[in-house]
């Protein structure tokens, strides 16, 4: 979807790992809409090399930054402003990782070292990014920061493990920092609560296939794709949403407001041999 919504705007995109990543699609959408961007990811992810394909396509430079390192983030802000020739207008935080999820360690018998890493990488990193941006005065007035969340922040999905707690913290940071950055510099901070999406991070959650299908059947519009999420992020970066801040916005085809759907009831009746 291209309408030059971001013409003349500059931004930083975190988290494009491969072509399935929500950040990858968002980079493509932002550039198709006229933006100039810098891409960033953890040094270990850059070593995969995939991001260079995207960088070429988007005519963007890549700067490595571990989102749990304040020094890396300070460097990222300075270098991005040098490359882009000034402050940025938008930042996408599309970062998530839980060592407990990766190692299938159950929530009720968690490893707390891992738990702290989950919170640091997946939630506190948003605070670090915002703090580094504020310190460097790297975002223009009316700029927009978007982070990606999931409905497990509000309701329990057992396979989501400690990522649920991380998302609750992430959404809270968006509200808290959004308040401060709004009064200080008119910078907006929101989270987008996205449908289950087939990506490296998404597919790592136990039972992902089943709850992907479940959400598809529950949502009146079906699951939102990564491409649709990317277009929504582009809109949130644009001037059309300039009074929107401190919100968690459900981008989920209606899942969050559906109690049960006829398709789920039919499936259960079939399973019970009633049809
Ligand atoms: P992905 O695996 O493509 O992206 C996750 C990214 O986080 C990767 O690029 C990875 O390199 C980066 N990352 C991990 N540790 C990092 C660190 N220390 N510093 C910097 N970057 C780091 O998967 P996806 O799905 O595109 O994930 C993006 C965001 O969307 C995450 O916040 C995820 O929780 C969220 N989300 C995903 C859903 C899904 O079903 N895939 C649903 C709702 C939200």
From TrEMBL:
Pathway given in the UniProt record: Lipid metabolism; fatty acid biosynthesis
UniProt KW NAD keyword: yes
E.C. numbers: 1.3.1.9
Domain of life: Bacteria
Keyword Transferase included in the entry's annotation: no
InterPro entries documented for this protein: Enoyl-ACP_Rdtase_NADH (IPR014358), NAD(P)-bd_dom_sf (IPR036291), SDR_fam (IPR002347)
Protein name: Enoyl-[acyl-carrier-protein] reductase [NADH]
Species assigned in the record: Nemorincola caseinilytica
Taxonomic lineage from the root: Bacteria, Pseudomonadati, Bacteroidota, Chitinophagia, Chitinophagales
């Amino acid at each position: 979807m291209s309408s030059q919504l971001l013409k003349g705007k500059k931004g930083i995109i975190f988290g494009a790992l491969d072509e399935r990543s929500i950040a990858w699609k968002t980079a493509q959408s932002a550039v198709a809409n006229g933006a100039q961007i810098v891409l960033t990811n953890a040094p270990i992810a850059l070593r995969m090399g995939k991001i260079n394909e995207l960088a070429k396509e988007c005519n963007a430079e890549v700067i490595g930054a571990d989102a749990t390192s304040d020094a890396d983030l300070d460097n990222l802000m300075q270098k991005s402003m040098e490359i882009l020739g000034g402050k940025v207008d938008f930042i996408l935080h599309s970062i998530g990782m839980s060592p407990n999820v990766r190692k299938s360690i159950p929530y009720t018998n968690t490893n707390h070292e891992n738990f702290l890493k989950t919170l640091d990488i997946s939630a506190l990193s948003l605070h670090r990014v915002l703090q580094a941006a504020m310190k460097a005065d790297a975002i223009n007035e009316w700029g927009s920061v978007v982070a990606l969340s999931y409905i497990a922040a509000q309701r329990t999905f057992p396979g989501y493990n400690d990522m649920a707690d991380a998302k609750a913290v992430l959404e809270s940071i968006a509200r808290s920092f959004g308040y401060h950055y709004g009064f200080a510099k008119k910078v907006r901070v929101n989270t987008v609560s996205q449908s289950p999406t087939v990506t490296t991070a998404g597919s790592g959650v136990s039972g992902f296939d089943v709850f992907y299908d479940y959400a598809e059947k529950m949502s009146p519009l079906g699951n939102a794709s990564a491409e649709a999420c990317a277009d929504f992020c582009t809109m949130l970066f644009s001037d059309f949403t300039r009074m929107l801040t401190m919100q968690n916005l459900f981008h989920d085809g209606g899942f969050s407001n559906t109690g049960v759907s006829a398709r789920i009831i039919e499936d259960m009746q079939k399973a019970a041999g009633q049809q």
